[in-house]
Amino acid sequence: MEVVIVPDAKAGGELIAEAMARLLRRKPDALLGVATGSTPLPIYQALTAKARSGAVDASRARIAQLDEYVGLPADHPESYRSVLRREVLEPLGLGMEAFMGPDGTAEDIPGACEAYDKALAEAGGVDLQLLGIGTDGHIGFNEPCSSLASRTRIKTLTEQTRIDNARFFGGDIEQVPHHVITQGIGTILEARHLVLLATGEGKADAVAATVEGPVAAVCPASALQLHPHATVVVDESAASKLKHADYFRHTYHNKPDWQGI
Ligand SMILES: N[C@@H]1[C@@H](O)[C@H](O)[C@@H](COP(=O)(O)O)O[C@@H]1O
Questions:
Q1: 167 lines ligand 1 (CB under 6 A)
Q2: In angstroms, how far apart are the furthest CA atoms of the chain?
Q3: Average pLDDT value for residue range 6-17
Q4: Which DSSP symbol is given to 219?
Q5: Nearest residue to 183 (alpha-carbon basis) of 173, 194, 172, 167
Q6: Transmembrane region positions (predicted)?
């Protein structure tokens, strides 16, 4: 696992957007796995700026969703499908034909989950999967004690996650669904490159457990330690509880530029 400590969220966004741009230059129809939440927004802004300036052609990129609320109509402004359309697809000039995601409104939820795992595999697998992290160490919506081998499935949110996400629903926790579909940890680990961005002091404990703690289902993000190409990008605040921060700084600063992340 590589840990990159950046000065702030904007720098993290720029670094990751450049890695995505490099990928798209090499593979124009790369399948990009995208995450929701506030953290990845600087990535999407930086990637959009690159596409608009002509630094990268994203017109053939394909976008895959990480997770979704169950029961929110697809056109609800806070369904993750709507959020990704707003924050990723439209800014990049991509239509919904470039998009794949699980159907949170399906009558047969297990069937929809299985179909999504199958669709991801048939699409050739995710080339680069962006991840945020919950304050409890969740990735996607894999809450603590999710199986590290899990596939896409329905999960019940913890109260903490519903409290954390209430800000997207006008601060009203009653509006936050209890159930979600999330790519499983086993599904996420099949992506070729995992890139987790964490910013702010509120993520410092989760980052320390992810990077320096044991691989344990109680901290789902710690599963990244099992992946051959995982990059954790953190700002100074999110890095504040890392014991090996100096080592991470040293290795990254001495890395040849061509290597990227
Ligand atoms: N399902 C999403 C996660 O994918 C995201 O990582 C997390 C953190 O969000 P934020 O980046 O806003 O802190 O929120 C939600 O739970």
A1: no
A2: 53
A3: 98
A4: S
A5: 194
A6: none
Pick the CATH number of 2-255 from 3.40.50.1370, 3.40.50.11540, 3.40.50.720, 3.40.50.1360: 3.40.50.1360
pTM of the model: 0.97
Query: Measured from the CB, is residue 220 less than 6 Å from ligand 1?
Result: no
* 122 CB-contact burial (10 Å; exposed 0-12 / middle 13-18 / buried 19+): exposed
DSSP per residue, 54-107: TSS--TT-EEEE-EEESSS-TTSTTSHHHHHIIIIIHHHT--GGGEE---TT-S
pLDDT at 80: 97
Q: Quick count: other Cβ atoms within 10 Å of Cβ 253? A: 9
Q: Is the CB of 39 under 6 A from ligand 1?
A: yes
> 227 CA to middle of ligand 1, Å?
21
Report whether residue 141 contacts ligand 1, using a CB cutoff of 6 Å. Answer: yes
Give the residue numbers marked as catalytic.
Answer: 67, 136, 138, 143
The answer to whether the complex's ipTM is over 0.85 is yes
**Cα(68)–Cα(140) distance, rounded to whole angstroms?**
9
Name, in order, each residue with C-beta under 8 angstroms of 171's C-beta and a sequence gap of 6 or more.
Answer: none
Contact call for residues 136 and 165 (beta carbons, < 8 A): no
The reply to whether ligand 1 has any atom less than 6 angstroms from the CB of 67 is yes
Return the ligand 1 atom nearest residue 202 CA: 13
Q: Which of 101, 86, 236, 232 is nearest to 168 (CA)?
A: 86
